[in-house]
Amino acid sequence: MFSPEIETIDRKKLRELQLERLKHIVTYAYDNVEMYRKRFDSIGLKPKHIQTLKDIEKIPYTTKDDLRDNYPFRLLAVPMKQIIRLHASSGTTGKPVVCGYTRNDLDVWSTCIARVLDMAGATDEDIIQVSFGYGLFTGGFGLHYGIEKLGATVVPVSSGNTERQIMLMKDFGATALVATPSYALYLAETARKMGVIDDLKLRLAITGAEASTAEMHESLRRLFHVFPTENYGLTEVGGPGVAGECREKAGMHINEDHFYPEIVNIEENRALGEGEYGEMVLTTLTKEGMPVLRYRTKDITSITYEPCKCGRTLARMSRVVGRTDDMLIIRGVNVFPSQIESVLMGMNELGKSYEIIVDRVNYMDPIEVRVEVVDANLLTDYSKLEELVARIKHNLRVVLQIDVKVKLVEPFSIKRAEGKVKRVTDLRKK
Ligand code: DLL
């Protein structure tokens, strides 16, 4: 373990540490960030009113709009002189979300990442290829410095140029890959096409930055001969390193000494209990550059506080099943793209790339899934084709309770993403 004293801490002691840090960060944010001061004052809340962890519920949520409204630097709690790095998320609309780090923030960040890597099974003997984009995105640099902190060898290849990535992976003898799960699968497909899969030394795929399903990890295990784990984070609270999966693959351990997690039912403004699914709300407990109180992530997950078989006592979050804003409502039924993915990835005849298209025709909202087949010959064998389409439709209906149109397409005909993949096109929004 990278930080055994924290990762196996007695939970009572952890709560004491969290409370001490919570009180400090609330006072610090109130004193140094105008938005928090004004917001607290408007409801008569003072930092001294936070005396227990439960008192956190008195604090109003912070949302992405708050971050955008204060673009670029109004949420910074220190003078720019003390900020030594900036990152930003590439939002699809409007201004990006900016995050500023002090020297201490960067140190904490790389510790959190080193823990995540160690949980995944990486050691200082690994050669780790980072295929996340380097730049404003937090993935590349975030993982990079964590790898250095762990003492492993980092290969900062960044994203893109897929065949070259495979060549380097082979020539440098990379033993671990850091990428989005969809790009990791694309790399696996490419390595297979190039006929070099057996020449690779890869043993770990450390994936994050977008949702993955158990089936997707199973495909990675099978196609790439790697042990896949996932990790989670978001720019608003500093980037990756919030949580990571250990070898038990029983949820992602949250670095709770730096991030205080809550699961909330937002509509009813009610805290949810262990195991219940709701929106993850995060408070940074130690950030100096840009402290964030009760950030609404929009990510839907659940938390367990049971100690893990690996010996860690840090709480575990389950896979993110979706975001409140990627949930599709089709004829009144809630559909998460991850449900569709689980079905498709569980069928051997299907490839790993798919698209979901939702339309609005006479208010019927037809939904179509386009998915690649593994064997192109199947597309000309009509009886087999019909049988497979019927089976996919049936499996989707069992999970989603609605009918979905299915179109099978040629292998490699769907465009691959080199970073985060966009699977859904919702034509109703046009
Ligand atoms: O994606 C930070 C990151 C980089 C995490 C590298 C892990 C590895 P953003 O670009 O701000 O930051 O996007 C954050 O991505 O709110 C989730 O919706 C999604 N996300 C990140 N990790 C996971 C995951 C980075 N393991 C948004 N599973 C988050 C599901 C994830 N969704």
Instruction: Count helical runs.
Output: 11
Gross morphology: globular
Main sheet: strand order: 4-3-5-6-7-8-9-15-14
Helix content estimate: 25-40%
Computed structural class: alpha/beta
Task: Quote the average pLDDT.
Answer: 95
- CATH homologous superfamily classification of the largest domain: ANL, N-terminal domain
Main sheet?
9 strands, mixed
Name the beta content range.
Answer: 15-25%
Ligand inventory reads: 5'-O-[hydroxy(phenylacetyl)phosphoryl]adenosine
According to CATH, what is the topology of the largest domain? Rossmann fold
How many individual domains? Answer: 2
CATH class descriptor of the largest domain: Alpha Beta
Low-confidence stretches: none
Number of strands: 22
**What is the radius of gyration computed over CA atoms, rounded to a whole number of angstroms?**
22 Å
Shape-level CATH architecture of the largest domain: 3-Layer(aba) Sandwich
First-residue to last-residue Cα separation: 49 Å
Give a description of the structure:
- This protein has 430 residues and is an alpha/beta fold.
- The protein contains 11 helices and 22 strands.
- Strands 4-3-5-6-7-8-9-15-14 form a 9-stranded mixed β-sheet.
- The longest helix is centred in the first third of the chain and has 22 residues, at 11-32.
- The model has no long low-confidence stretch (mean pLDDT 95).
- The structure holds 5'-O-[hydroxy(phenylacetyl)phosphoryl]adenosine (DLL).
- 5'-O-[hydroxy(phenylacetyl)phosphoryl]adenosine is lined by residues 89, 132, 138-139, 208-211, 230-235, 239-240, 297, 299, 320, 323.
- 5'-O-[hydroxy(phenylacetyl)phosphoryl]adenosine (DLL) binds at residues 89, 132, 138-139, 208-211, 230-235, 239-240, 297, 299, 320, 323.
